[in-house]
Amino acid sequence: KAGVTQTPRYLIKTRGQQVTLSCSPISGHRSVSWYQQTPGQGLQFLFEYFSETQRNKGNFPGRFSGRQFSNSRSEMNVSTLELGDSALYLCASSFDSMEPTEAFFGQGTRLTVV
Amino acid sequence: GQQVMQIPQYQHVQEGEDFTTYCNSSTTLSNIQWYKQRPGGHPVFLIQLVKSGEVKKQKRLTFQFGEAKKNSSLHITATQTTDVGTYFCACHMDSNYQLIWGAGTKLIIKP
Questions:
Q1: Are B81 and B15 in contact (CB under 8 A)?
Q2: HSE value, Cβ hemisphere, 13 Å, CA-based, for A85
Q3: Are A43 and B88 an interchain contact pair (Cβ–Cβ within 8 Å)?
Q4: Which of A34, A90, A97, B87 is such that its CA lies 20 to 30 A from the CA of A58?
């Protein structure tokens, strides 16, 4: 079956703009989590969606938001971009994060803010 | 917030030497998962441990879950260049379904 698909793969934006990233989970997976990863850093948790509801949220400012659609596809939006938002954004899907199943990651979207 | 500590942050080894990374928590874990991220890649699931004292092996990799379910280790015997990358632990804590991630240990093979 198809893996987790993230689009676009690369993005260059100007400071102050906004951006929307997309994640299509593995078919049948209802949980989608988003992470920010900067060079040499670990995975910083942004939020998790399950059945169109935000179930968990990390410590990021309100400029970072997301949503999930009825087909489990998820989008992440960052408004008023700052230079420090340049990072690899990863999404991961799992069948249900309430159960201890593995997370499958997409290839990520590499965002550069100039 | 809930945390899991992973050490060391980096480990430099000669090819053929062993490598170990550790994850520790102050609270009981429901499970622990290990992932590998190759340079330029995304994290890929390696294994999950659920039972107290569980030990699992995958070729040269040995994964252990502590008796108290508060710590875990990943040991690689006789490292090879293909082992290069960052190894992350991730876990669910009791009564919490959010996956908590360690900071990762970067394995570097000395030339």
A1: yes
A2: 26
A3: yes
A4: B87
- Residues A37-60 pLDDT 10s: 998 778 999 999 999 999 889 999
Q: Which residues on A lie below 8 Å from B35 (Cβ)?
A: 103
User: Which secondary structure element, helix H or strand E, spans residue A31, and what is its range?
Assistant: strand A31-37
In this structure, what is the dihedral angle of CA atoms B69, B74, B75, B76, given to the nearest 10 degrees? 160
Characterise B66 by phi-psi region: left (phi > 0), alpha (psi -120 to 50), beta (else).
Answer: beta
Using CA atoms, how far apart are residues A30 and A105, in angstroms rounded to an integer? 14
Closest chain B C-alpha to A16 CA, distance in angstroms: 27
DSSP annotation of A83 reads G
Contacts with B42 from chain A: Cβ below 8 Å: 90, 105-108
Contact by Cβ (8 Å): B2, B96 = yes
Q: Residues of chain B whose pLDDT is less than 70?
A: 1-2, 94-97
User: Hey, are the CB atoms on A102 and B33 less than 8 Å from each other?
Assistant: yes
